Amino acid sequence: MVSERELLESVPTQLWIGGRPVDATGAGTFPVHNPATGEVLTHVADATPEDALRALDAAVAAQDAWAATPARERGEILRAVFERITARAEEFALLMTLEMGKALPESRNEVRYGAEFFRWFSEEAARVHGRYLHAPSGTGRIMVHKQPVGPCLAITPWNFPLAMGTRKIGPALAAGCTMIVKPASATPLTMLLLAQLCSEAGLPDGVLSVLTSSHSGAVTQPLLDDSRLRKLTFTGSTEVGKKLVEKSANRLLRTSMELGGNAPFVVFADADVDAAVQGAMLAKLRNGGEACTAANRFHVHNSVLEEFTTKLVEAMESSVRLGPGADPDTTLGPLINEEQLRTVGDLVDDAVAKGARVRIGGKAPDGPGWFYPATVLSDVPPQARILREEVFGPVAPIVGFDTEEQGLAAANDTEFGLVSYVYTRDLDRALRIAEGLESGMVGVNRGVISDPAAPFGGVKESGFGREGGTEGIEEYLSTKYIALT
Ligand code: NAP
C-alpha cells in the first residue's frame, strides 16, 4: 500500500489531452483541499478556454478511427481498464478519501461500483443492434442503423469522483464516441489518474481527455458553442443543469441530465421496522448523505413512527463514527467544504426554529475539517425548508402520515423525481406505491438501488436520460434510417 504522500506525488496534476499530461496554457494551477483538515493536498492545472479547444481538436482527430475500431476491440480496452482499476483499487480509494473526504469503506465501494461500468459496457460494446424489415406497405425495405453520436463533453460532480465519470465514459467509449471530461474542481485527481490508466490500458490518444478547471463556465463555453461537439452529458445540481440546457439550446446540442434529488423514504404500518431502519441507515448515510440518491425525508406511518425514530437514533448512536475518512475506525467522513457545512447546519437550524426536535446530532463539532454528525429530527413541520431542499448531508428529518393516500401524496410533493424508497410487507401495496411514485427509480424494501446493470436516472426536475443498463449506451448512439428498394 502506498503512503498518502507517495500517492499524491504519483498522480498526474496536469491536464490530460491527446493521451498525455500537458500544462494549462499560461501554466495556471489551482489548489485541491483535504476536507478532513482544510489543508492543500496539491495543485492541479487550471484549464483555459484555449485548452478546451485543444482537447476538442484531439477528440475530433481521434473520433473516426475510434468509431471504426471493431466493437470487440473497444470492449477489450474497456475490460483492460476495469482490470487495472481493480488492481489499483486501494490507490483509487485513498485518493478519493483524500480529496472528497468520504470514509475509506465508502471509497472502496465506489471503486467497485465505478470500475463495474467499464466491465458492463465492455460487454455492451458488442451488442449494439439495428433493425431490418420489409415496409408493411410493400414499397421497400427499412434498415435501422445505430452510429456513435461523436465527440462528447461530460461534466461531473464531486460526490462520486470516479463513478460519476465512469458511468459516462464507459458507455460513450463502448459506443465509439470520444469524450472530454470536466471533473468537479473539488475532486480533479481521481479523473486524472483514471485518464492515465486508460492510456496504459491501450486507449488511443485523444479518445479521452480531462480538463481540470477552477472556472467551469468559461472553460466549457467554447465547447458548447463549437459545432464539432455532438453531446453534453451532465451530472450535478438542477440549478447548473438548467443553465447548461439553456446554453445547449443554441445549437440544439444533444444532452443528458442527471440532476438533484429529494428522495422520500416511506415506511408503512405493515413494514418490517428493523429492516426499514437498516435500509434507512444505508439510504441516509451512504456517502455521508452526499448522494443524489440519499433519502432526504422520512415519511413514516404514525403507528410505527416512534418505534422507527427510536431505532434509527439507536442505530446511529451505536454504529456511526465521525472522523477523518482515512482513519480505519471512521464510518462517516467530513462534508466536502465549508459552504456545504453551512448549508446543512442552516437547514437543521431552520427546522429546529420552526419546531423540529433534535433526537441525535444537530451540531457541528469544532474544526479543523468540515464535519457534521449523523442527525435525526422528529416533529418536523411542513414549512421546514429541509423537507423541500436537497440536504446533501447526514440529516434525517422524520414526519408522520395516516393513510396510504397521504403517504404517497407527501412523497410526491416535490419538484424532484430521482428515486424513492418504500417499505411494506404487502406486495399489492408495494406495486401500487411503486407505480404511483413520481420518480425514475424506486427501491422496494431496499436502501441502496444503484446497479451498473440497471437504468439510473430521474423524471421531473431530476433530469432526463439514463445511465447504466442496456439503456445507458443509447445516450451515445444516434439512429439512422436507411431506405432500400
Ligand atoms: P454542481 O455545482 O452543479 O457542479 C457539477 C459540475 O458542474 C462540476 O464539475 C462544476 O464545476 C460544474 N459547473 C458548475 N457550474 C457550471 C457552469 N456554469 N458551466 C459548466 N459547468 C459548471 O453540483 P455539485 O455540487 O458538484 O454536485 C452535487 C449535485 O449533484 C447535487 O445536486 C446532486 O444531487 C447532484 N448529483 C446528481 C446525480 C444524479 O445522477 N442524478 C449524481 C450525483 C450528484 P466546479 O466544480 O468547478 O463548480
Automatic annotation (TrEMBL):
Please indicate if the UniProt record lists Oxidoreductase as a keyword: yes
Q: Write out the GO MF terms.
A: oxidoreductase activity
Domain (Aldehyde dehydrogenase) spans 26-482
Which EC number applies? 1.2.1.-
- PROSITE patterns from the entry? ALDEHYDE_DEHYDR_CYS (PS00070), ALDEHYDE_DEHYDR_GLU (PS00687)
InterPro entries (UniProt xref): Ald_DH/histidinol_DH, Ald_DH_C, Ald_DH_CS_CYS, Ald_DH_CS_GLU, Ald_DH_N, Aldehyde_DH_dom, Aldehyde_DH_Superfamily
Any one Pfam family here would be: Aldedh
Q: What class of enzyme is it?
A: oxidoreductase
Q: Which residues form the active site?
A: 258
Q: Which UniProt keywords apply?
A: Oxidoreductase
The entry assigns this protein to a family as follows: Belongs to the aldehyde dehydrogenase family.
Identification of the protein by name: NAD-dependent succinate-semialdehyde dehydrogenase
Native source organism of the sequence: Nocardia niwae
Please name the taxonomic classification of the source: Bacteria, Bacillati, Actinomycetota, Actinomycetes, Mycobacteriales
